[in-house]
Design goal:
alpha+beta, Beta Polymerase, domain 2, 4-stranded mixed sheet, about 50% helix
Length: about 110
């Protein structure tokens, strides 16, 4: 199983454990553009079907981040969580993470 598949499976597993549904997982940034260095971080946008309040987002972020670091202890992750509705509102707005992921991202 390659790294990207493992990353997606870890994210889906955590979301399901917390009773959330994964809409999409998008890799963006230097790894998506293929201009990364060996020590580059993984920029990952997780889009959840349901709306997220601040506490839910913090808890999910922590659970996913911890699970990813157990599997990839020397990798750095920039993990961003958004609801589907927020992502849809922002994906065409220039200079947003959603727009960057929409334009250059790779759906996992």
């Amino acid at each position: 199983m390659n790294e990207l598949h493992k990353i997606k499976q870890i994210i889906i597993r955590v979301l399901e454990k917390e009773n959330f549904s994964c809409e999409e997982v998008i890799l963006f940034g230097s790894r998506a553009r293929k201009d990364f260095r060996e020590d580059s971080d993984w920029d990952i946008l997780v889009i959840v079907k349901e709306g997220l309040n601040h506490e839910q987002k913090k808890k999910l972020w922590y659970e996913i981040y911890t699970a990813l670091h157990k599997e990839f202890p020397i990798s750095s992750f920039d993990l961003i969580l958004k609801s589907k509705s927020v992502y849809e509102e922002e994906k065409l707005v220039v200079n947003t993470i959603s727009n960057e992921a929409y334009i250059e991202g790779i759906k996992l």
